[in-house]
Write a structure and sequence with these properties.
about 325 residues; mainly alpha; ABC transporter involved in vitamin B12 uptake, BtuC; 2 strands; about 0% strand
Length: about 325
Amino acid sequence: MDFLNAFITLSNFVLIPAIAYGSQLALGALGVTLIYGILRFSNFAHGDTMAFGTMATILITWAFQGLGISAAPLPTALLALPFGIGVCALLVLATDRGVYRFYRGQKAKPIIFVMVSLGVMFIMNGLVRFIIGPDDQRFSDGERFIISVRQFKALTGLDEGLAIKTTQGITVITAIIVVVLLFYFLNRTRTGKSMRAYSDNEDLALLSGINPERVVMVTWLIVAALATVAGVLYGLDKSFKPFVYFQLLLPIFASAIVGGLGNPLGAIAGGFTIAFSEVMITYAWKKVAGYALPDSLAPDGLAQLLSTDYKFAVSFVILLIVLLFKPTGLFSGKAV
């Protein structure tokens, strides 16, 4: 029985949160890896693109709630999500036409695009803060739990209860659907194959009659969708605060690089690697150890390696190790 209680505690505070967080990072990392693989630069504005798409979804969600439109028992934000994706898509397409297109025409080096994306990042960050403010914004409604601690205890009779939030379930299901659709698009459709060909060999793709501007446009549309979905799922699961999305750029890039920058499958694996590492290293293991170990071996302290305040440091350390010893990542993407 103690073993079951230990497993439930582990699931409640480590496994389920890490799976949900990993799904969010994986979707964010997919956007980063698509930009790097197809447009050949590291987009430092991706975190703030997520923030902008989420902000648009929040504003539309509030409008729906004011009109009495809901998706109960699911969050109203799911109804607003397609509109948020559309607004974000307009922004990134306008940014590409107004900024990146000029440097593509100049055949600028990737480092120039990186520096330009830094400027875009600061502008987006300021725009989001100006429109919605710098404070926490909560926009979740509907049922809070799929199963609550009380319900689980009543069903099982265990001392420890398992809680699965509705937002966690939505995150995992949505991530699976989005990933399946993305891989189907890239591998089965003509446009997806054109994007892959353009990524593998730009000159040969141009000789084959592939329209580069169409590839660029479709790439930005997909990135806008991935960024908005990832941002909304993160905001529903936790809360929305513009500066947090700026900070998310580190674990998202770490996920993409750990998995193999430019490799979509690697982005997913990297997302879960980073998520589980952050959660496990910053979790206080005292309660789990108390159930799993004899009383004589149970720790007196929290058995916490790092405070949760330093969770992004975990991503940074992992990123450094990968860059030093295996810069192509776990799935042998393009060297950084």
